[in-house]
Write a structure and sequence with these properties.
The structure holds two protein chains of two kinds. Chain A is of the alpha+beta class. Chain A has helices at 2-75, 84-109, 114-117, 119-133, 150-171, 200-205, 209-220; strands at 137-142, 175-182, 186-193, 224-229, 235-242. Chain A has a five-stranded mixed sheet with strand order 1-2-3-5-4, covered by helices on one side. In chain A, a hairpin with a 5-residue loop joins strand 4 (224-229) and strand 5 (235-242). Chain A is elongated, with a radius of gyration of 26 Å. The model of chain A has no long low-confidence stretch (mean pLDDT 87). By secondary structure, chain B is mainly α. Chain B has one domain. The radius of gyration of chain B is 17 Å and the shape is globular. Classes of the chains: A alpha+beta, B mainly alpha.
Chain lengths: 243, 204
């Protein structure tokens, strides 16, 4: 009888253990599913960005170039009415500005050279772009040994893009340091700026979209992210990505 | 037994699916007891032979219903038919109606212990209940397992004692039987008490 009771107690314990394991498996599957959904959504967003960037470059860009050519031909027509030449020049300026805008938007949408020339090249482009847009100095140091799969490259690129955008748009930073280096077990991305900083607790409670994006992208790399900031004391972000 | 009968009447509507056969089992046990009491002035051991067959088949139906398609569908019905034939043959040729049918009871106990183990295995494999202690089948199965495992023990002990004719020990065996019976009916009552919860799961 004692053996039977012992057997039943063991059965109950095994049952609970297996139930916990099953619940854990279900939770893991749910997390995996959510991650898959995020991946698929981001893939779809990237595909759409590529399409829009290609259309902008190939169609709008080509049309604008043709327009620029036609306006140039218009200047060669005789006789020109008074004031027409200055109007043509203004046309040319507007078209040139629009072509630049289209190029910039297209370049923002599509990481230039990321697939072809690698992460370092793309990040350099991103930093140069940031410096050209605002009065900011960006110091980028990338360990040459760093190598990620293409999708992770893109995620890391977008993460840095988000950090730089925040620095320019909201933080009004003048100096930015970006350091990407490898450890035996993980890769570290260290970001530091001398911008306005912010109250992290308040921003996190308000579910700031920028912070959320950075966190989501770090999670997509199976990494961890830490923020160190205070109002008036800049922002430091460290991302650890397991190798 | 009265407690489990009361539980059956209170939860009558909720005893569906395999629990229907537990309702039948409790009613059968009470009827068996009443008939045994009414006929105890004359030798009535022949009733035990019939009761053993009925009891086994009702319990087997409970397990057959609960197992569903988890085990081969012919397993329980096949054993029911086999047991019934063997029990009848035993009563005709081996243990006459005027004596105890320990062979049939022993076989029934072994088979029910087997069903109980299979039942536990099915529960462990399916993990259908988040709170096992609120699952009526767990308590009912536990009650049946404890009772029939105990029965098997005292039956083998009883066989040895009948040779020695030790009255004191014989009374102890009957005491043990009563204790197991009480324990089984308490566990059945707990199971029946949880049947409304089972009904929710079963009908959802």
């Amino acid at each position: 009888m004692l053996m039977l009771v012992g057997g039943v107690v063991s059965f109950l314990m095994i049952y609970r253990k297996r139930l916990s394991e099953q619940e854990l498996r279900v939770k893991e599957m749910e997390i995996q599913h959510q991650q898959d959904v995020i991946y698929r959504t981001l893939d779809a967003v990237e595909d759409e960005r590529k399409r829009v960037a290609r259309d902008l470059h190939d169609e709008i860009g080509a049309s604008l170039s043709a327009m620029r050519l036609l306006v140039g031909q218009l200047a060669q027509c005789n006789p020109l009415l008074p004031g027409t030449e200055s109007l043509i020049n203004r046309f040319k300026d507007v078209i040139d500005t629009t072509i630049d805008s289209v190029r910039r938007i297209s370049s923002d949408l599509l990481p230039q050279g990321l697939d072809e020339l690698g992460l370092t090249y793309a990040l350099e482009g991103l930093c140069e772009n940031a410096m050209s847009l605002a009065d900011v100095s960006v110091e980028l140091t990338v360990d040459p040994a760093i190598s990620f799969p293409p999708r992770d490259n893109l995620v890391l690129y977008r993460l840095v893009q988000e950090l730089l955008n925040n620095a320019i748009k909201h933080a009004q930073a003048t100096n930015i340091q970006l350091l990407l280096y490898t450890h035996p077990d993980y890769v570290s991305l260290c970001y530091a700026d001398d911008g306005r900083g912010f109250d992290f607790g308040t921003a996190y409670q308000q579910r700031s979209l920028g912070l959320k994006n950075i966190e989501t992208r770090a999670q997509m790399l199976h990494g961890t992210v830490s923020f160190d900031t205070q109002p008036g004391k800049g922002l430091r972000v460290t991302v650890h990505i397991p190798r | 037994m009265l407690i489990s009968l009361a539980a059956v009447f209170i939860c009558w509507r909720h005893l569906i699916g395999p629990l229907l056969f537990i309702k039948l089992f409790v009613v059968l046990a009470v009827l068996g007891e009443v008939v045994a009491e009414l006929t105890n002035s004359t030798p009535n051991l022949y009733l035990l032979h019939g009761y053993t067959i009925l009891e086994f088949n009702v319990i087997a139906l409970f397990y057959a219903y609960f197992f569903g398609q988890f085990y081969p569908r012919v397993l329980v019905p096949g054993l029911m038919v086999l047991f019934t034939i063997l029990a009848i043959a035993n009563s005709i040729w081996l243990q006459p109606l005027s004596g105890f049918n320990t062979n049939a009871s022993g076989l029934a106990a072994v088979l029910i212990i087997g069903f109980a183990v299979l039942c536990f295995y099915k529960m462990l494999a399916e993990l259908a209940s988040k709170r096992l202690t609120q699952n009526p089948v767990f308590w009912i199965n536990l009650g049946l397992l404890l009772y029939f495992a105990g029965s098997l023990f005292y039956m083998s002990l009883g066989n040895a004692l009948s040779v020695q004719t030790n009255k004191k020990l014989t009374f102890m065996v009957f005491g043990l039987h009563s204790l197991l019976m009480v324990l089984m009916h308490i566990l059945l009552s707990i199971g029946i008490w949880y049947s409304p919860r089972y009904r929710q799961i079963y009908t959802s």
